[in-house]
Structure formats: C-alpha cells, structure tokens
Amino acid sequence: MCWASSNNPRLVTLVAGCVVAGCLVGCATTRGVLFEPIDPPKVWPAPPDTPRIKLIGALSSSEDLKASKSGMESFKTVLRGPRPPIKFSAPQALAVHADNTIAVADGAGAAVHIIDLNERTHARVIGWDDQQFAVPIGAVWVGDRLFVTDAQRHEVIELDVDGRFRGRFGSGVLVRPVGIAFSKVREKLYVVDGGSHCLKVFDLAGNVVRTIGRQGINPGEFNFPSHICCSEDRLIVADSGNFRVQWLNLDGEFIRAFGRKGDGAGDLSLPKGVALDSEGHLYVVDAHFENVQIFNSDGQVLMAFGEEGRDLGQFWLPAGLAIDGQDRIWIADPGNGRIQMFEYMRTAL
C-alpha cells in the first residue's frame, strides 16, 4: 500500500513509498558514479603533448561517496532529517589499503578518517576509551593494522581496519612524529621525528630498535624532515628544512640526495609527501610551490603538475600523498579540505 500523510509535512514527500512485510521499498537510492568524468579531461602536460597525469576527482566529505540508501534509510531521513556529512578539516596524510580502504590523518580535525571505496562508507575516528587524537599527521597500513603518528601526543597509535584501538607506543622516545613508512623486508616501522631531526625505527611490537641521522646539512643529516616512503630496499625522506630529498638504504646509510632551494624546475622549497609509482618515478609534493614534481631515480625532473588555487587539480598547501597498486595518486590537499585523486597513465615519461 502506497501512502502519504498530509498531517505530517515531513511525510508529504513520501508519496512513492510502499510498505511490504514491514519494510519500506520504492524509496531506496542507488549508488552514484564515484567520480564523474571530467569534460574536457584535465591532464598534464597539456595538449598537444602526450598526457602522463590525469585528474580523476576529489573527496571532501562522506556525501562525495554517493552511497546507496535502502528504503528504510530513506524513510528515516524523511522522519529525522538528513545526517550532517562527515567532512575533512585539513587532511595531512593518507594511506591506501590493498582492499580499496583509505585512511586519512586529519590533523586540524583531530581525527582519522577510514573510507571504504567499495562499500562507500566513511567513518571518523576521534579517539578510544577516554583518550583522543590531538594532531594525527601520518599513516601507514601494515596488513590490516593501521599505524598513525600523532605529533602532539608524541606517539604512534595503532588501529584495526575498522578504526578500533589496538595499542600505542613511542611516548618518551618521539618528540614530534610526522611521516611513517613500513619496510616489508625488515618488518620495521620508520618514523620521521621532525622534532629531533632524525628517523626512529620500531618493530611491530612498538620497541625502538635504532635511530638514524641527526640535525645538520651533511649527507645523512636532516633539518625538520617531514615525510617518508619505502621501496624494497630504499628509504626516501623529504628533508624539508634542507630543501632536498634523501635516499638511504634500510640501515640508514646515505645513497644520494637531490633538490636545492630555488624556483626553477627540479628545485624544492618545502618538500613534503614522497611516493613511488609502479615504474619507479618519484613524486614529491611541494607545499610552497603548490605542485607535485616527478623525478627519475637519478634526480632528474621529468614534469610537474598542479598549481595554487581552489579548483580541481589545484592545491592549497598540499601535504602527504600515496600511490596505490593501480598507479592512482592520492594527494592530501589540507588548505582545500579535501583529498584529490590523479592517475599515472603508464606511458613512458
């Protein structure tokens, strides 16, 4: 039986709803396309050059997931009004799980967002028991374990894939933990401690096993390092205060560095997020240049994309990035309160 109630103005719109076996049908909504095609496509470099990087879209809140709703969920929305969307405040870093789950460290929002792109769900984790996040700023998945650095709590927080608290470590050892990476070869976590200008290495039980580097300008030394990524046998560190990126082996021994202060192609002003694609190209986010530069393994700049602004494909103080197994490039865009997704088109750079 289809019905509507003229006595309740919130039910007037429920004209097409039907009740069958105690459940509402006919009001369900289907999930929308996650990222609508951009027309004309936004690519880098611009035509007539062969495009290498393509903008796919952005996520700012749970509404952008365009999740489906059952008839009952739609009915509750009519009765109670829509729930406010979960929004990013200023996402600083993100990590992509192999099953299409994204963890976003939202420093200004004092929260960690866990987004399941398959199920189109968005959860916001603000704390555990009687504790809360303060300034979560880095994240990495190790299987179904999520490790999040909290710069103000001076520790690493471990969550499971659903955002439940599992443990914490680093208090008394870390000064200002920021970036974090995991080495599958060594089964160790490498935490960038920007406050003490070094890397702290932990086992998965949270025990510190060594310290790499110290403050300075020489090879293997750091000045306010911020972000890190790990390849099979290499560590790549954004040495932000020295305007460079350093490559180290897993023991922390210096291999090479590139970048210098300047405003030319290949120069760096405030390097932050670093990540490698499937072909070994290194992507470096620069928060001052408001762009991403792409280098080969010798430090030669190949191209750049992005610029300052509010539109899609533009950035405002960009920070961390992650590249998933499909060569999708996820970039934290804190000044715009969003994360943006690009695609490496897998053509030779």
Explained architecture:
By secondary structure, the protein is mainly beta. Helices cover 3% and strands 42% of the residues. It contains one helix and 29 strands. It has one helix at residues 71-80; strands at residues 18-20, 23-25, 43-44, 53-59, 91-96, 101-106, 111-116, 121-125, 127-128, 131-132, 136-142, 145-150, 155-160, 165-169, 177-183, 188-193, 198-203, 208-212, 227-230, 234-239, 244-249, 254-258, 271-276, 282-286, 291-295, 301-305, 321-323, 328-333, 338-344. The chain has a five-stranded antiparallel sheet, with no helix packed on it. Strands 5-6-7-8 form a four-stranded antiparallel sheet, with no helix packed on it.
How many beta-strand segments?
Answer: 29
User: Could you list the spans in which at least 5 consecutive residues all have pLDDT below 50?
Assistant: 1-6, 9-25
The major sheet is characterized as: 5 strands, antiparallel
Through-space gap between termini: 62 Å
Instruction: List the quaternary state of the chains.
Output: single chain
Helix content: under 10%
Shape category: globular
SS strand fraction: 35-45%
